Amino acid sequence: MSHRNTSAAIVLLLTGALAAPVDAACENPDTLTFSLVPTEDTAAELQLYQPLIRHLTAVTGKPINFYSPTSYASVMEAVASGWVDIAVLGPASYTLAKALNDDMVVFATYTRHAGHMQEEGPGYRANLISRAGSGIETIEDSRGTTLGLVDPASTSGHLLPNVAFAAETGEALDDFYGRIVYTGGHDLSALAVKEGRVDVAFVATHRFDNVVERGEITLDDVNILWRSAVVPQDPFVFRTALCEDLRAQIVEAFLTAHEVEEVQPYFAAINSPRFVPMEDSDYDLIRQLQAAAN
After folding, report:
1. pTM of structure
2. Tens digit of pLDDT for each residue in 203-243?
3. How far, in Å, CA of 56 to CA of 19, rounded?
4. Are residue 15 and residue 91 in the same domain, yes or no?
């Protein structure tokens, strides 16, 4: 993206994320707190973010603390309560958290290069996988087996399976599968399939690629039984109670990060060329799925 295009994107985004109403006494904390939805190794995940966090500190002039969550719900509650200022959430956890407290808004996500399972662009899919050689090669083969889901607040590891996949089979997951377990992470679901601890699992395409890059699984280790429609990537959010100048600096830091050499290891680690602007309405599809689930 050229500098001119980056500047234009920032201006467009400011009309959305920064136009959100705030009280006259806005918040300008000395330190910002950042968090993310948990993975198999949240500490390792945080290490990936260190170049980006250092860039964010350089732009805002504020040190960044990290809140380590224990579940999707804990980071949702931390953002909704104002304990966390900036976070990366799952699409479904974002819409759920925003329903709890409107004092947050999405401002960016990352676009992805094509990977092992991931397609190029700012979206991803939920894929149902089984272990290669297991004899489970079709959706019908998986009937009555043990299914791994991720977390009740996960988009691809709970919401899409319960709405889109259930619509395709014409049966609720509880009726189609013999047993359902929650693994706590997409990486854990992928490894549970590989190791035979569950028969099938729904995984996010980009999260599966992360496990491949760590050398813990390959695409040849699994069969893909079903693919969902494309949904938007994980939203980066901040609290709208933060002062407008500070929010503008945060937006600038993210949308210019791809131009900063120090941040390149972060983009390489997540197989992404850059951040792109996002608005709350981009996640209306998720709200429609949640409404259908209810």
Report:
1. 0.77
2. 999 999 999 999 999 999 999 999 999 999 999 999 999 99
3. 21
4. yes
